[in-house]
Amino acid sequence: MLQVKRDFQLRKLSLSVANYGGHGLVIHRDSKENNPETPFKFAQKNLKKIESLLANFPGGHKQAALLPVLDLGQRQNRWLILYVIHEENI
Q: Among 6, 29, 31, 80, which residue is least crowded by beta carbons within 10 Å?
């Protein structure tokens, strides 16, 4: 009985994400609302938040603020447009 339970647990570990509704490979397709030329500017209050976020990280580790900055862009626009991902002037 113990062997059967152990085998079942091992099989559960080997299930792939696709079995649970994973979408597989996700790629971006440009649209008129979401392409590299879609204009986006951070609001002044978000720029201040970004400055305070960047102040939390030492000089060589500013890239660690990437996810919080992307979150601000998504909250401002209600969804994350491609231009925010490629913004370099932060």
A: 29
Alpha-carbon span 39 to 87, nearest angstrom = 10
- In the chain, domain spans: 28-86
Tokens 């890239």 sit on residue: 63
How far lies 23's CA from each of 12, 62, 63, in Å? 19, 32, 28
Q: What is the pLDDT of residues 31-58, one digit of tens each?
A: 887 877 888 888 999 999 999 999 998 8
Residue 31 has a pLDDT of 84
